[in-house]
Write a structure and sequence with these properties.
- This protein is α/β, with parallel strands linked by helices.
- It folds into 3 domains: about 20-150, Rossmann fold (3-Layer(aba) Sandwich); about 155-350, no CATH class; about 360-455, no CATH class.
- The chain has helices at about 1-5, 10-15, 20-30, 45-55, 70-75, 80-90, 110-125, 155-160, 165-170, 180-195, 200-205, 215-230, 235-250, 270-280, 310-320, 320-325, 340-350, 395-405, 445-455, and strands at about 35-40, 60-65, 100-105, 130-135, 145-150, 285, 305-310, 360-365, 370-375, 375-380, 380-390, 410-415, 420-425, 430-440.
């Protein structure tokens, strides 16, 4: 674990100011009606570094590290909020009367006791702002608290760390300029290979060497396993959680069955519970398909879910496919598009900061049908289909079936080519319009949709 810790000072000073969540944190700092914040994120996504950077906006910063035995002792008998702050400031050498203080409970596992203490502090000392970090997902934020979700680096954030100025400028243009295509395609392939875990990106920026990243990936997974081992669960369940997490990487971006997942001899009910635990720990997510082409989107929990891991770089490393990925010219051609579908999902999630977020996709309502559209996104009262694959519009049969059911004629394709608009027909003869975007623009689909729909309707 020491090698990961050694990256943090470098990473904080040079990179964390580029994170997109910074602007949301800045707004929270200025919002007097929201004194509490829960900052969610899987382990090693950089929650502590993010808060420490933001702490410079306050006159006083107090951090309670719940992994530190001395800090845990302070919480054994906290008393009421005012007394706790007085005691804490005495121990930490801080000023209990400071009017601009940020108190940070640096947790890994969410605790209702800490939540109650934080609420009492906010009530008794409203001049104090409180952040609780958590790698445990809740259904909703407690009363008086806002919620923000910190995920691994998006491609935008990766570009800000490793990309050239002209690539960053081209990426931000709408419509996208043809001249920036090849450079950004190469950088996106690099991002898909390296991933967005902060310690990995920090090491890659330092070394520009994929071999040097091996101990960082291994260290992050070891931290995940350590968290599992320290839970108050029976050893059998801990072992099953560890094995399931280890097996999950190779199935990322695909639909899974719980029964005997990863050839482990356990039934659907027990494995579903294991997956729910891992999902609540933000180590993976399960996304269920919709069977309707009309709003609102309603995931069908009786269908097989698609598995999404936190980071594609970890997927490629722990699936043992990095060497094949290095030479890829088109990610659609790699492993039947599985890796590309996963990294596109990671990009779509990156813009969702106020809720856990889910990835919506479509399957045909007929149970025996194999028709599937990779993603669907709501836009101005429509459900827009997004296919992540190459091929001529006339050959995309699943997309045709969706378009035939949808009350609109618009579709998106993500591929290894430049921006284009095509008019086509479904197999049943319905006219539709397809906007093809280079797949590195996955997180910017909605920004291109307005102009596309206006153009197609003219």
């Amino acid at each position: 674990m020491t090698f990961i810790c050694n990256f943090i000072p470098y990473f904080m000073t040079d990179m964390y100011f580029n994170r997109s969540l910074t602007s949301h944190l800045d707004r929270w700092v200025e919002d007097a009606s929201s004194p509490g914040l829960i900052l969610y994120g899987a382990r090693q996504t950089g929650k502590t570094a993010m808060v420490e950077n933001m702490a410079t906006k306050f006159s006083q910063f107090i951090r309670l590290d719940l992994k530190n035995p001395a800090d845990k002792d302070i919480l054994r008998n906290p008393g009421n909020g005012r007394n706790f702050i007085d005691t804490l400031c005495f121990i930490k050498g801080k000023d209990p009367g400071c009017k601009n203080t940020l108190l940070f409970f640096d947790c890994n596992c969410y605790s209702h006791e800490i939540e109650e203490l934080a609420r009492d502090i906010i009530r008794s000392k409203p001049e104090i702002k409180v952040i609780i970090s958590s790698a445990t997902r809740l259904n909703r934020a407690p009363v008086g608290f806002s919620s923000l979700y910190l995920r691994p680096f998006s491609f935008t954030e990766f570009l800000n760390s490793v990309g050239s100025k002209d690539a960053i400028e081209a990426f931000g243009e709408v419509p996208f300029p043809v001249s920036g295509f090849h450079k950004l395609l190469g950088l996106f392939h690099q991002y898909s290979l390296v991933g967005g875990m902060p310690a990995v990106v920090g090491k890659f920026v330092q070394s520009k060497n994929m071999t040097s990243l091996k101990p960082v990936y291994e260290g992050i997974l070891k931290e995940f396993f350590n968290d599992i081992s320290q839970t108050a669960l029976r050893q059998k369940k801990k072992d099953l959680l560890t094995i399931t997490l280890q097996n999950a990487f190779m199935y990322a971006g695909t639909r899974i069955k719980f029964n005997a997942f990863g050839n482990v001899p356990y039934g659907s009910r027990e494995m579903a519970g294991i997956f729910r635990y891992l999902e609540n720990s933000m180590l993976l997510s399960l996304n269920y398909p919709s069977v309707t082409a009309r709003p609102p989107l309603k995931p069908d929990n009786n269908r097989f879910p698609r598995l999404q891991m936190p980071d594609t770089g970890m997927v490629t490393y722990f699936s043992g496919i990095q060497k094949q990925m290095i030479l890829a010219m088109d990610l659609n051609a790699m492993f039947e598009g599985q890796v590309l579908r996963h990294v596109v999902g990671q990009e779509l999630l990156s813009s969702i900061v106020n809720e856990p977020g889910r990835l919506d996709y479509w399957v045909r309502s007929k149970v025996q049908s194999s028709a599937e559209v990779d993603y669907v996104i709501p836009f101005e009262g429509m459900i827009i289909p997004v296919v992540v694959r190459s091929g001529e519009p006339g050959r995309l049969r699943s997309l045709h079936q969706f378009i035939d059911e949808a009350p609109h004629p618009f579709a998106i394709r993500l591929y290894a080519g430049n921006v284009s608009i095509r008019k086509a027909e479904t197999l049943k003869g319905k006219t539709y319009y397809m906007l093809s975007l280079p797949y590195f623009l996955a997180c910017r689909i909605t920004e291109h949709l307005k102009g596309f729909i206006r153009y197609a309707g003219s």
